[in-house]
């Protein structure tokens, strides 16, 4: 069935789903649009990606995203690169096994013919994918976020089921780590003076100043020791004792070992890798022992049933 380019694809109906949206989703989509626009400043930013999260009945929680590729976005038949899509999905699920693909996102003010073509391809993977559209052209011109979420509904037109979109209201939910990141990004993007800084920036600045001061003091001590070693400065026993006590309190870790008792960075990394590998091997061995025990119990049960059936036949 041919779809007209100027056809309206949004219908006014009562939505069936309740959507909760994490702010990190908006940040990653905005970053995707910004990166695409920077690579092609004169072109319209065409972005496509998947929405992942959790679903419980009619309640959807959109937690994260990953970008994907569409061949011929502005053509009459845009095509999703499903091979790359599957790889990206598998990569995310290795870290978040309880997440599932809930829908997809793109840029624009409203669904278009290309949007419907891509949505039909997503309908081959999902029963009712949601669509998130972020209008980058309105960014900074309105107080609210130019973002709209649609759920899928099917209408029978000319004896064919055609996807239509129903706008869904959403609520913002976040975790503590997300709130810190969003607050930092908000201040970084809108700061007009030195007074407008986020709590994270203040904390990192304090840590940086402390490390810088420590490095300056360590350089001063090193210059004194080099001067004493060269004979340019008379040695002070009290200062040398204090430096010696400080050295004994700090673990000496260098790129190359100073002595047989001084570990190097490579030795520390190798030891950590060995410990991690050993833990993984022990976990695999434990799982194998558990599987072997289960198989042994099943074999014993089957053997007893077989012997019981044989005695019954003999009697």
Task: Give an overview of the whole structure.
The protein is built from seven helices and ten strands. The strands form two sheets. It has an eight-stranded mixed β-sheet. A two-stranded antiparallel sheet has the order 4-5. Helix content is 48%, strand content 20%. The chain starts with 17 loop residues before the first strand and ends with a helix. Residues 191-195 have low confidence and may be disordered. It is an alpha/beta fold and 315 residues long. Strand 8 and strand 9 form a beta hairpin.
State the total count of DSSP E strands: 10
Mean pLDDT comes to 80
For the largest sheet, list the strands in their spatial order.
9-8-7-6-2-3-1-10
Query: How far from one another are the termini?
Result: 73 Å
**Class of secondary structure makeup:** alpha/beta
Q: Level of helix content?
A: 40-55%
Mind telling me the C-alpha Rg? 31 Å
At a glance:
This protein has 315 residues and is an alpha/beta fold. The protein has 7 helices and 10 strands.
Question: Keywords for this structure?
Answer:
20% strand, two-stranded antiparallel ribbon, flat, 315 residues
Give the SSE layout.
Elements: E1 18-21, H1 23-39, E2 48-56, E3 59-67, E4 70-71, E5 79-80, H2 82-95, E6 100-107, H3 113-123, E7 130-134, E8 147-157, E9 160-168, E10 170-172, H4 176-190, H5 199-230, H6 237-249, H7 265-314
Parallel strand pairs: 1-3, 1-10, 6-7
Antiparallel strand pairs: 2-3, 2-6, 4-5, 7-8, 8-9
């Amino acid at each position: 069935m041919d779809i007209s380019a100027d056809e309206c694809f949004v219908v006014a109906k009562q939505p069936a789903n309740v959507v909760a949206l994490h702010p990190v989703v908006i940040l990653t989509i905005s970053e995707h649009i910004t990166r695409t626009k920077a690579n092609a400043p004169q072109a319209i930013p065409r972005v496509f990606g998947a929405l992942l999260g959790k679903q419980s009945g009619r309640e959807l929680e959109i937690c994260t995203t990953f970008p994907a590729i569409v061949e011929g976005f502005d053509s009459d038949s845009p095509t999703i690169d499903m091979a790359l899509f599957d790889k990206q999905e598998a990569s995310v699920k290795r870290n978040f096994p309880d997440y599932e693909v809930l829908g997809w996102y793109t840029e624009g003010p409203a669904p278009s013919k290309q949007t419907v073509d891509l949505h039909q391809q997503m309908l081959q993977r999902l029963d009712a994918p949601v669509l998130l559209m972020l209008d980058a052209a309105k960014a900074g011109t309105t107080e609210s976020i130019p973002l709209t979420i649609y759920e899928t509904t099917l209408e029978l037109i000319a004896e064919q089921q055609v996807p239509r979109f129903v706008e869904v209201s959403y609520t913002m939910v976040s975790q503590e780590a997300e709130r810190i990141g969003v607050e930092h990004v908000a201040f970084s993007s809108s700061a007009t003076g030195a007074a407008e800084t986020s709590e994270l920036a203040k904390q990192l600045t304090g840590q940086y100043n402390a490390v810088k001061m420590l490095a300056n003091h360590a350089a001063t001590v090193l210059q004194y020791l080099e001067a004493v070693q060269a004979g340019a400065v008379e040695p002070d026993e009290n200062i040398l004792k204090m430096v010696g006590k400080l050295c004994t309190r700090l673990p000496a870790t260098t790129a190359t070992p100073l002595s047989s008792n001084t570990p190097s960075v490579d030795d520390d990394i190798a030891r950590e890798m060995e410990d991690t590998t050993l833990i993984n091997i022990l976990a695999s061995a434990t799982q194998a022992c558990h599987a072997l025990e289960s198989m042994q119990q099943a074999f014993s049960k089957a053997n007893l049933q077989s012997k019981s059936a044989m005695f019954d036949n003999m009697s």
